[in-house]
Amino acid sequence: MIAAAWICLFAPLGAAIAITLLGQRLTRRGAGYLATTSVGMSFVAALVSFAGLLGDSPSQRYHPSTLWRWLTAGPYDFGMRITVDPLSAFMMLVVAGVGFLIVWYSIGYMDGDDEERRYFAYMALFVFSMLLLVQSGNLLLLLAGWGLVGLSSYLLIGFWHERPSAIAAAKKAFVMNAVGDATMALALFLLIQRTRSLDFEKVFPQAPAFGGWAANLIALGLLGGAVAKSAQLPLQTWLPDAMEGPTPVSALIHAATMVTAGVYLIVRTHTLFEAAPRVEELAAGLGAATLLLAGLIALVQTDIKRVIAYSTMSQIGYMFLGVGLGAYANGMFHLMTHAFFKALLFMAAGIVIHALAGEQDMRRMGGLRQFLPRTYWAFMVGALALAGVPPFAGFFSKDSILAAALAHGWYGQLLWVVGMVGTFLTGLYTFRMLFMAFWGEPSAFVREHFHALNRDVVGVSLAVPVGVLTVLAALGGWLQFADVWTPVSNWLEPVAPALVEASGLQEAASSAIAVVLGIAGIGVAWWIYGARRAEAPRSLPLLEHKFYFDELYDALFYRPAVFLANALLKWVERPLVFGSVRELAGAIRELGLETRSIQTGLVRTYALAIAASVAVATLVFVVVR
Amino acid sequence: MNGPDVVWYLCVAAFLFCTGALGVLIRRSPLIVLLSLEIMLNGSNLALIAFARHHGREDGQIFALAVMAVAASEVVVGLGLIVAMARRRLDLDVDKLRTLRG
């Protein structure tokens, strides 16, 4: 089982290295197959680990393994150490499973791109980084994986490096993530100072003894990392821009796996958060604020990928809401179903974008139902799952989070109301997108693109992963049906015991209201965008500008920095540094000009000077003696 | 020890040296300047040998031999330069060779 976990971790790294080293000797297709096979191997290895854990009794499901000593500094010793426990096995399955489908899908999607090999090397590197993040057995290695996923995200967002907007988006994502990495590193320093270790089993039991301010600071630092990685308020602005990357990248990194790392981090370090209840409530509050904000912004976006990106932010908001209130298993369950249906939505959107030669603007789409019927149904399943309509996956997971919120006192009930509004918004923006892209009369643009094509434009490697995810998005939610059977909660119980339990009544009431609101959202979307019975309302400038967050950060950080740099240039650099150097050079030049007349070129003057000096020297010599 | 005292030798050496130095300083023909240089060197050679004899050691004589070797090579270089100048029909006047002024 441990060997399987190590294979799971290193198979994608091996593929990344092999693709890099083989270069031209590997065909482009070969690189794709190699990456897909390696991630598939990871998935099989994850299944083996999972099966191994199933064989243990629940309390025994904890298997750390150290391959070598990685870093030693004085009394501190950090190993290359992984942990196989229910939580990491859960994440391994999600990451490797969804990753396998998406890398496979990439073979068809990236076919013909000039730099396919580089793409697949990056993808394999990402899967390795993400597995390192979820498998690591100490917080230092977790931070290393955390940084590596940021790196691969940066590389893949900027994959089409000839587009300036892609480069700008990649840099933005990297810088905003670096803020989170920094706060997380500070939290780890404090942890080392308190516990002299970063191994999970040594750190977590000591958490209750930290005392107020230390516990709060540690939890805040970790929360900073989590919100940056998961694109939650106030570090959320990078995610929509990250849609500049290829669509499978958006599906894998910016929907299914990497952006949910924040949720994983909170669940993994839940004892540290429980030692600081205020910070944990802050996490829930930030999640609620983000889900509302992102849902509102998604209403006015016209780029199909950006709508899905905002919905990702919104859904991760639900997960933060859940885990912040202590409903860890519910949050993780939503993480899993979200990975299914959001990857499905992205990949179906990818097929649309592929068929329309890169067009992402929904206003130029329309009527695609006739041309891409199977994609339409796949998208429909994803949309229904996202909107939380039973019996699709989102219904089970999202409603269990909301029910748990209802059971968490007045604060939870407040967030429950926000979550309910979010449910309505989810139905509205999801089906606005679906109706705009797939319903109505085909636009001239769409007709032009499909005129010469067969109806069946979708290749095998695009169709099969989408098909599998459609099934998962439709049925994946049945894994857990709160109060009736709860295998996910039972599975995660040994790692992260839930703090709140919703009663059956709360579950039922919350679900009913959420479904009604979700369907109401769908109905409104149908009324305006499907049936076109009402004029689409004018969009608010506030939403168009995404609540002015970019402008705010521009004014708060970018402009002062530029102002400061300009001021320093004008008042310090130019007069002091440049000035002093220039003055010194000028003085030396003057000195040279003055003394050049001494060099006459007349040999006899030189001889006289020598003779006179010798005479004077002799005289001095004699007199001084 | 026979012969005049070392002082007399030194006086002759100083006279030779000063004559040479004067020649170097006031004559303009490079040929004469070289010649005067040789006189200066010979003045110093005389002093070296006088001291060698005065102290009864041979270091000074060896030194004088070395100076003569150096002087010979210096004359080779100097005369070569003068011949090269004459070939180019340049004036043999050190005051006119002042291209290297600042």
Keywords, please?
heterodimer, A: mainly alpha, two-stranded antiparallel ribbon, B: 102 residues, mainly alpha, Helix Hairpins, 3 helices, elongated
Q: Could you say which overall geometry of chain B the principal axes of the C-alpha atoms support?
A: elongated
The CA-CA distance between the termini of chain B, in Å, is 55 Å
Q: Could you state the order of secondary-structure elements of chain B as H and E?
A: HHH
Query: Biggest sheet of chain A, strands in spatial order?
Result: 1-2
Series of secondary-structure elements of chain A, N-terminal to C-terminal: HHEEHHHHHHHHHHHHHHHHHHHHHHHH
CATH class of chain B, named Mainly Alpha
Oligomer: heterodimer
**How far is the N terminus from the C terminus of chain A?**
96 Å
| Beta strands of chain B, count | 0
Low-confidence stretches of chain B: none
Q: What is the mean pLDDT of chain B?
A: 89
Describe the structure.
Among the domains of chain A are: 254 residues, no CATH class; 75 residues, no CATH class. Helix content of chain A is 73%, strand content 3%. Chain A is mostly helical and 625 residues long. The N and C termini of chain A lie far apart (96 Å). The radius of gyration of chain A is 30 Å and the shape is globular. Chain A has a two-stranded antiparallel ribbon with strand order 1-2. Chain B is an all-alpha fold. Chain B has one domain: Helix Hairpins, CATH 1.10.287. The radius of gyration of chain B is 17 Å and the shape is elongated. Chain B starts with 5 loop residues before the first helix and ends in a 15-residue tail after the last helix. The interface between A and B is medium-sized, with 13 and 14 residues.
Question: What does this entry show, briefly?
Answer:
With 625 residues, chain A is mainly α. Helix content of chain A is 73%, strand content 3%.
Itemize the secondary structure elements and their pairings:
The complex is a heterodimer of chains A (625) and B (102).
Chain A: H1 2-22, H2 28-55, E1 63-73, E2 76-84, H3 86-109, H4 116-135, H5 139-157, H6 164-195, H7 200-203, H8 212-229, H9 238-241, H10 247-256, H11 261-268, H12 270-274, H13 277-298, H14 304-324, H15 328-355, H16 368-371, H17 373-387, H18 393-406, H19 409-438, H20 444-451, H21 460-475, H22 487-492, H23 504-530, H24 541-544, H25 549-595, H26 603-624
Chain B: H1 6-26, H2 30-55, H3 59-87
Helix pairs in contact in B: 1-2, 2-3
